[in-house]
Design a protein that fits this description.
heterodimer, A: 660 residues, two-stranded antiparallel sheet, B: 87 residues, mainly beta
Amino acid sequence: MTVAVLAPAAPAAVRPRRVALLGNPNTGKTTLFNHLCGLRAKTSNYPGTTTAIRRGTLVNDDGERQEFIDLPGLYDLQTSTPESEVARKVLLASADGPDVVVVVIDACNLTRNLVLCGELLSLGVPVVVALNMMDMAQSRGLEIDTAALSDRLRCPVVPIVARRRTGLDTIRRAINTASQLRQAPPSDMPRDEATLEQLTWWAENVTDSVIRAGALATRDDVTERLDRYLTHPLVGMAAFVTVMCGLFWVLFVLASVPMDIIEALFGGLATSVTAIVPTGPVQDLITQGIIGGLSGTIVFLPQIALLFFLISLLEDTGYLARAAFVMDRLLARFGLPGQAFVPLLTSHACALPGIMSARLIPNRRDRLATILVAPFMSCSARVPVYVLLTTLLFANRPALAGLAFAGCYLLGASAGLITAWIFGRTALKGQPRPLILELPPYRAPSLTNALLAAKDQSLSFLRTAGTVIMAICIVMWWLSAYPHTLPPAEATALRAQAAAADPEPARELLARADSLQAKAEQAGSFAGRAGRFVQPAFAPLGFDWQLTLGVVTSFLAREVFVSTMSVLEGGGGDSDLDAGVVARIRGMTRDDGSVLFTPATCAAALIFFVLAMQCLPTLTITRRETGSVKYAALQLGYMSVLAYIMAGTTYQLLHLVGVS
Amino acid sequence: MATTTGVIRLTSLAVDATARLRSAELDTEARDLLRGLGLTDGSIVRVCKQGEPCVVQVRATRIGITSRVAGTILVEPMPFVALRGLK
């Protein structure tokens, strides 16, 4: 190995030694990073991009601070993919560039991994090669002469098994040494912007010279048989449905336990605050605005953590790559990639984790298409609205109500797929990338990686939830709660009657008075006034001011529609739907005394809620994940206009044929 | 389906057959991705599975390719040879 010792670097005390980790996908790079940095790592987008990189720090035995940067997995530095561009920017940064680059190489796939290593060596940065998965190489009878490899590459080569933490100390020592060395690129390397073909020829040559026994390109009969089943049109689809049912069950059923606990904790917190803080605007702000807003958002945290935990496990096993091909047959017809199935399926639980999981999709255009249509999938927040409106639409006909309920899911999914097809030909530039994926070997998943992925994504979500989303929640609460309205005369009269009545009738009178006051406050709030103000625009949909107010208030979260309707009807603002609440809402009337929830109005409202973008937190996440407010605006504008037109058309057609 | 003498589409190869990659009628982005995965010009591939997806092995890498893309890849069939990267 030809190296020269550098003079001690003067600014070493000023900034920590910077170490970048680089490697092909599926080489165990993230596992190595997790073991080196553990829980100290943070995920963030590279400035000006939506490509995530992870940073972590550690203090070595000499007390020196080192900063690690986990670059995205990539196959080569030459292509124009976002991952390669970010890697080039980090590696070539003059002031903040890495002092050492650790290239993680899969020992069982030496030639292809050496291509990226060769590109890096030609840049002249100090390199340490981490030759990972040595246990698998040995089990295949592969013998690699690491000393010879080090000589050929002119840099330290450390055999490791990252999963078992074998060789990590040697890597740390090699990092410390390498940053003091100036390495000359191998003399036999193709120079001056070598093509991938030239680099591959060089990598093959190096591989041939360092393998002492065994073969790299062996045939793996077990993997090939599994692939035949898991990508089969019928068997593969059955396996896919089974796996996704499990995923969905976890997100819908299992996650409900911690979600209930979170709601109960926030409920308890609000009660405690009520007991301490005097009644008034400050108490309202804390309990309803801040605690209510946080509760409504953080309640989704278990779903997000569990989703990313399971995705990481599935990705590690190698199954997700196979599943992508199963779904590509269907989704490619609409211009969506096979990988879009995870975001779209997850969005049926909640669009927030669904949109975040679109990071699985490597191509930006395909990722944008998926993010834009994900909110069309019927999320769990729509369920109470669907239940209410289908029950109102088909009173005493549960079979038809059930069909309508299922139809809502179908309508949402169809609208999403058709929209993807339309956007693919209009708003989105470029062609969808045809599905070309490495099919990694099947492996046991890493629990550590899955836990850290869940932690990273949860923290990322909490950062957004604790800032932008909470601010939105407070504003929406304020608009719904202020200005306070004086109690209506009828409520005051009822309270006066209650004061003179026996305890039992007094309770009923007070409840009616509270209900009347709540309705008056709802109607008199800024949101209520806005509802009345914009009502003429919703008249073609058959919505009166009360339904319009339901639409306006549910912009924070769709399920608010039910409690708004309950308050306006004169109930207590229950969001839980029981037969009594439905019956009372069915009896609601317009100002002229006519029935509000006619079949035509119910159908129009149902279609509106299936298609409308009634979720501000989703828009916030869309903006963050796309890196641009214009995509959030497009999502909001398109879905709102589509919902308006479809609901209006439905109402007018039904009205024309006499169903009203 | 033969296109020019000795050169056929990847989708025409039988399972387990080996062939040398000649060219691919793809846009730059897709071609770059294939090259990054190891399907460089002149590389030798073995067909592991035909249909949807077409699965090929190049050196130690197994790659799934939609049949639409596989149909645009032109290869020159070879008698059985050890894949490059073998020692």
